[in-house]
Design brief:
The complex is a heterodimer.
Chain A: H1 2-14, H2 16-45, H3 49-55, E1 59-63, E2 69-70, H4 72-78, E3 87-96, E4 99-106, H5 121-129, E5 133-137, H6 138-143, E6 151-156, E7 159-169, E8 178-182, H7 183-190, E9 195-196, E10 198-202, H8 206-212, E11 218-221, H9 222-232, H10 234-265, H11 267-275, H12 280-325, H13 337-354, H14 356-363, H15 388-402, H16 406-437, H17 442-452, H18 454-492, E12 497-501, E13 506-507, H19 508-515, E14 520-530, E15 536-541, H20 544-549, E16 552-554, H21 557-565, E17 569-573, H22 574-580, E18 587-592, E19 595-605, E20 614-618, H23 619-626, E21 630-631, E22 633-638, H24 644-654, E23 658-662, H25 663-677, H26 679-706, H27 708-716, H28 721-763, H29 774-800, H30 803-809
Parallel strand pairs in A: 4-8, 5-7, 15-20, 17-19
Antiparallel strand pairs in A: 1-10, 1-11, 2-9, 3-4, 3-10, 6-7, 12-22, 12-23, 13-21, 14-15, 14-22, 16-19, 17-20, 18-19
Chain B: H1 3-22, H2 36-41, E1 70-81, E2 86-97, E3 112-122, E4 127-136, E5 142-144, E6 148-151, E7 154-159, E8 162-168, E9 172-180, E10 185-186, E11 192-194, E12 202-219, E13 222-237, E14 245-255, E15 260-268, E16 278-282, E17 288-292, E18 297-305, E19 311-320, E20 325-331, E21 337-339, E22 343-353, E23 359-368
Antiparallel strand pairs in B: 1-2, 1-13, 2-3, 3-4, 5-6, 6-7, 7-8, 8-9, 9-12, 10-12, 11-12, 12-13, 14-15, 14-23, 15-16, 16-17, 18-19, 19-20, 20-22, 21-22, 22-23
Classes of the chains: A alpha+beta, B mainly beta.
Chain lengths: 810, 373
């Protein structure tokens, strides 16, 4: 075996480029999988870690399902004999530029001794007495680009707050993007006197709490909080996982194509080894060991790259999670040995499985074979029945159409892509044949030469077209989705301007006051309540224009409006209807502060604002059940001829804390959130595109180098250097071209499955299928350009080489 | 081994260790200790200072004095089970006033930070139990009025003429009744206890030096009936330590002959005795006599080294010629070391006659300023 390993080492010394490509291919695939896995975990596990670092691990939380806790509960519990240490917390969101921060207001004196923000010296005094004193972690300070003892200017509900950083705490990542303040100051600044968000304590005191808690409050442990975070971000995580697995598949194609090519180059060596008595088993063992070493080294590099990638891209995931789910995740990833080991072992096993065909082929090399036979043997891995691709496509499609869950649709997509991967080389070669039969001259000849090694090129064509398709498909889905959202939001916002206030509240009286203004033709208003599971209940007061703005998925306005206005029926958004399996005519029960209330489902409408869903009911019924007269926003429809500036000054007088948002601004804000949400998808699409580029270069370099002997023959027959270079360039460019041509329908398939099946199942909303052309317009020329560029090196090398030694070898 | 293999192995090893380093658990944050000097000597114009004698009145002066920067209610005591096993306890409530606030619109807004220390010395196992709590002086979480001194559910309540002390920590608890056996005594000059050259380096200070104590002590699941003697110290002011003073050694001694003795030996930063050291001798009939630095001599006989290498003087020889006392004090056991936010030593001691070696009393010793190097 030692001798065999020695031969393989010498081979890689002679072909360092091939070695490098194999390593990069696997490393890139593994990096994406690792990076995504790490980012995904942050969304679940690290959500809790901020309070964990304040009050210790394994905590239990007292919450009030009806809303904020009354702070008197803390006094009542804390002064009860035998009371455990309890940490009162008030949490709010702050905005710093386009970043979301979490304000964690605590009683510093109730903090555990081992807590990260234990009171020390004068900082405690400042926290307790100053209205704007805050503490942040050192890394937060760096992330925000502030010096120690700087002033942090943030906004809370539209109001600017200037917080003075009076101390930093040791650099724990869990406190990243958290601003810690004293309860008194935070209640004062945010106008939330009397409120707590929750009270936290060690879970070992559960029994004591059960005994002493008043009715109606809930105890939520860390596991439950993780589960609800997991449920909230399920859609987003599923999307990321799908992308990462597809990237790995592309990476595996790269390693397959490289190893298959390496085998061709070593046919001669293996033949010699067989001739000197090395058994088939030994040869196979050698190749398997080689794969394990290559894949193992590549995967190790991939783990490191993935870790770096996750750290770098984490904000792309955290931002939308903070915007959409109101959860500021930790800014630091938490890798575990378990995760690393799992990904590494999986990568090596998948690499071995993917080169199974290559190993089988190696077994067939007869002793003494020193060169490739004229009639190329088919690699065993690709000796597949003609009907297999079709079967994969059909069964994948069947799986997608006949099931409802997300995992089957991912499996179905995988099957279909495998079918595509098998189909790509066959169809691609047919296309090449069309070119080659037309006309005579050097180019058709070059293409014919290319076709003669089609089996060898098959994996490269598959990998390439899949990777290109994936990049383009994801891009098309995101752009199509954006167009849908734009269309939806433009239609939905029917008022001219929306009034919100940053301090205090709007209520029914304000609505009545505004209705009397001569500038205002009519009004709408709404009040939202966030439920435990992240879904919303909205009390709507709508006018005819607002009613007309709904886009109905099922049911219609004529029947829905009277029932909803009568207070007996509700509207559901599409995600809510899908998640609960409800349709018009069904009943839905809502938990309200006045007890459970049951409603008919009147209609289902399109909504992309909340993937946990939203239930809309008529305002008066909402106010009756929730005992809540407040309004989050009032939509103003202006009388013809009323200028916006005129209204603005009048509003500024009547509502000093009021903010007016125009229709166009609402649309822009919505799309800005959308764009931030999909930045990670773009990043992953670009990464897959880069893997595609690696696959392309690897395949083309291989092609150019492999055919050295044939090029030598052409040179010997009198083809000038320039002509030879032309042949090589033609071949690499056409290879890129067929990959691109195949990638177009595949990308459309991916786009269609993501838009029509994955999005509805992951998030609950359906998308209208549109066909944005931009991703293809970028990828097609780029791939062709890369194809030509990647041919340039072999073209130059072959053209400048002396043909004699190569010919002698044959 | 070939060079390339070595290079690959080194790279693998480096990458592997980098990955392993990524999975390290987060480091626990560094916790900082409060410095006694900072707590006791911070001078602020926002607070009144004690500059001379003023009449005290009770029960009003049992309640907190928010105009002054710091204040404490301090119980220590030697206890015994029916089998004669030794226990000691300490319960202290500290108030530290905060700089004036900005009038925050919140029920949590506070003018003071409160700290409570609860300790139990178990002479049988030589274990020292300690628990510390903080609370703000708002929301009814901590405070002191004429009838009740409390921090959350730890409290001392006046049940005339006795005090009832109830405090429960995770692994131990006290429930004691303390009945004064002699009248309250004013320390220093009618309660004006001067500690430095500036008349403002002073506190208002009174004590009840002998309280008959009975009740229950819980250690883990074990409940013990106990009896013994306690000592109460009450002190408030705005700047107790003068510039250049490093700490103090405080003795509260109850002698079998009925006399009670308090010695406060102030130490300068250079280790020497401060001329501002003071003391008080209380006769069995309740009459008391002020002692100044020249009236007594305290010499360290033995030091105990804690895990951090700090050396605590746990054994002393004390001479008070005017009282005919030449005594030796010994810690009942060495490790009665407070290690929470504040680093000090507070524990039960035995008193022996220096000449005969005979046990002649019991007491409590507090050592401060040794653990902050």
């Amino acid at each position: 075996m030692r001798l065999l390993l020695e031969s393989s080492r010498r081979f890689f010394y002679r072909h360092p480029g091939q070695l490098l490509l194999a390593l990069i291919g696997i490393a890139a695939g593994v990096a994406v999988v690792t990076g995504v896995a790490l980012m995904r975990d942050v969304l679940i596990d690290a959500l809790d870690s901020a309070t964990e670092s304040l009050s210790g691990s394994e905590t239990i939380r007292i919450t009030d399902p009806r809303g904020p806790l009354d702070e008197s509960l803390y006094r009542q519990l804390a002064t009860t004999p035998g009371a455990p240490a309890l940490l009162p917390v008030l949490s709010s969101r702050l905005r710093y530029g386009d970043r979301m921060l979490e304000l964690l207001a605590v009683d510093p004196l109730s903090l555990d001794r081992d807590s990260a923000v234990r009171p020390t010296g004068s900082a405690t005094g400042q926290l307790l007495t100053q209205a704007n004193a805050a503490v942040v972690s050192e890394t937060t300070l760096q992330r925000l680009g502030l010096g120690p003892e700087g002033v942090l200017e943030v906004s809370h509900s539209g109001e600017t707050l200037k917080l003075e950083i009076v101390a930093t705490v040791s650099a724990r990542r869990e406190l990243d993007d958290r601003v810690i303040m004293d309860l008194a100051a935070a209640q004062h600044l945010t106008g939330r006197r009397g409120e707590l968000s929750f009270i936290e304590t060690s879970s070992q005191h559960r029994d004591w709490l059960i005994e002493h808690l008043p009715e109606g409050l809930e105890l939520v442990d860390a596991q439950q909080r993780r589960e609800s975070a997991a449920a909230l971000t399920a859609g987003m995580r599923a999307n990321l996982t799908a992308m990462s697995l597809l990237s790995l598949a592309v990476g595996l194609f790269v390693i397959y194509s490289v190893l298959a090519f390496l085998l061709v180059q070593r046919r001669r060596t293996i033949g010699m080894l067989r001739a000197v008595g090395v058994t088939q088993g030994r040869i196979q063992a050698l190749l398997a060991l080689e794969t394990v070493i290559l894949a193992g080294l590549g995967a190790l590099a991939g783990l490191a790259l993935g870790t770096l990638m996750a750290s770098a891209l984490l904000d792309l995931v955290r931002q939308p999670v903070a915007e959409l789910y109101r959860m500021v995740a930790s800014a630091g990833i938490r890798p575990s040995l378990g995760l690393y080991a799992t990904v590494w072992v999986m990568a090596v096993i998948m690499a071995l499985a993917s080169v199974y065909g290559v190993l089988r082929e190696a077994q067939r090399i007869p002793p003494g074979q020193l060169a490739r036979t004229v009639h190329e043997t088919r690699p065993a891995g690709l000796q597949l029945s003609r009907w297999l691709p079709g079967l994969l496509l059909v069964s994948g499609a069947a799986l997608i159409v006949t099931t409802r869950g997300l995992p089957p649709v991912m499996a179905g997509l995988f099957l279909m892509l495998s079918g595509c991967a098998l189909l790509a080389p066959a169809i691609g070669m047919q296309l090449l044949r069309l070119f080659s039969v037309r006309g005579s001259g050097l180019m058709p000849r070059a293409i014919k030469m290319l076709m003669s090694s089609r089996q060898r090129l098959a994996p490269a064509v598959s990998a390439l077209s899949l990777a290109l398709a994936l990049s383009a498909g994801v891009g098309m889905m995101v752009l199509g989705f954006r167009a849908t959202v734009d269309d939806w939001v433009s239609r939905l916002i029917s008022a001219d301007v929306y009034l919100t206030v940053s301090q205090g509240q709007l209520d029914s009286q304000d609505v009545e006051d505004l209705r009397a203004w001569p500038e205002i033709e009519m009004l709408t208003s709404s009040r939202q309540i966030r439920m435990d599971d992240g879904s919303m209940v909205v009390g709507y007061d709508l006018n005819r224009k607002a009613w007309a703005a709904f886009e109905w998925v099922s049911g219609d306005r004529e029947s829905a409006q009277p029932a909803v206005e009568a207070g007996t029926a509700v509207l559901l958004t599409e995600p809510m209807a899908r998640r609960k399996g409800l349709e018009p005519g069904d009943r839905i029960e809502l938990a309200t502060p006045s007890g459970a209330a049951s409603f008919d489902v009147a209609a289902v409408y399109r909504d992309f604002s909340n993937d946990r869903g939203l239930v809309g009911l008529i305002g008066w019924r909402f106010r009756e059940l929730w005992q809540d007269e407040q309004r989050d926003s009032i939509g103003l429809y202006l009388q013809a001829g009323t200028g916006l500036e005129e209204l603005e000054s009048k509003i500024a007088d009547a509502y000093p804390a009021g903010n007016l948002t125009t229709r166009e601004q609402v649309r822009e804000q919505t799309l800005a959130v959308f764009d931030r949400t999909f930045r990670i998808s773009w990043a992953l699409a670009i990464l897959v595109g880069m893997i595609a580029a690696i696959a392309l270069i690897s395949a083309l370099l291989a092609l150019g180098l492999e055919r050295g002997r044939e090029y030598a023959t052409l040179r010997a027959l009198g083809l000038p250097r320039r002509g030879l270079a032309g042949v090589v360039l033609t071949q690499t460019t056409s290879l890129a071209a067929i990959a691109v041509v195949m990638a177009v329908p595949f990308s459309m398939l991916i786009h269609a499955v993501l838009s029509l099946a994955v999005q509805p199942r992951a998030f609950g909303w359906s998308l209208a299928l549109t066909w944005p052309w931009q991703p293809l317009a970028v990828i097609i020329p780029l791939a062709l350009l890369l194809g030509t560029a990647a041919g340039a090196y072999p073209a130059w090398k072959i053209a400048s080489r002396d043909p004699a030694p190569l010919l002698r070898a044959s | 081994m070939r060079l390339d293999t070595v290079i690959v192995l080194v790279l693998v090893l480096l990458t592997g260790s980098w990955l392993a380093w990524q999975t390290r658990p987060p480091e626990p944050p560094a916790t900082e200790r409060l410095r006694v000097q900072n707590l006791m000597s911070g001078e602020s114009e926002d607070f009144r200072r004690v500059t001379g004698p003023e009449p005290l009145s009770f029960p009003e002066d049992h309640a907190q004095h928010p105009d002054y920067q710091n204040e404490w209610w301090y119980f220590t005591g030697n206890l015994e089970t029916a089998e004669g096993e030794r226990l000691g306890y300490q319960f202290t409530l500290f108030r530290f006033a905060l700089p004036p606030g900005e009038g925050l619109d919140s029920a949590w807004a506070t003018e003071a930070m409160w700290m409570a220390h609860l300790a139990l010395s178990d002479g049988r196992s030589e274990r020292f139990y300690q628990a510390e709590r903080f609370a703000r002086g708002a929301m009814g979480l901590a405070g002191a009025d004429e009838q009740r001194w409390w921090l959350r559910d730890w409290e001392v309540r006046l049940d005339d003429p006795a005090w009832r002390l109830v405090a429960e920590a995770d692994d131990f608890a006290l429930e004691l009744e303390l009945t004064p056996q002699r009248p309250l005594v004013l320390q220093g000059d009618a309660g004006y206890s001067r500690k430095g050259p500036d008349p403002g380096n002073a506190s208002r200070y009174y004590s009840i030096t002998r309280l008959a104590t009975g009740g229950e002590v819980r250690i883990g699941d074990e409940v013990l009936s106990v009896e013994g003697l306690s000592w109460l110290d009450r002190e408030w002011g705005s700047s107790q330590l003068a510039e250049g003073q490093a700490g103090w050694d405080w003795f509260a001694i109850q002698l079998d002959d009925g006399r009670d003795l308090m010695l406060a030996r102030l130490r300068n930063e250079d280790g020497s005795d401060s001329e501002w050291s003071y003391g008080l001798l209380v006769e069995p009939d309740g009459r008391s006599r002020y002692l100044n630095a020249e009236d007594y001599r305290a010499v360290v006989e033995r030091r105990w080294r804690d895990a951090n290498g700090n050396r605590w003087p746990v054994e002393w020889r004390i001479e008070i010629p005017s009282a005919g006392l030449n005594i030796r004090t010994r810690a009942v056991f060495d490790d009665q070391h407070w290690q929470q936010s504040v680093d000090y030593w507070e524990g039960m001691i035995d008193i022996h006659d220096q000449g005969s070696g005979e046990a002649i009393g019991r007491g409590y010793l507090e050592l401060s300023g040794y653990g902050e190097g």
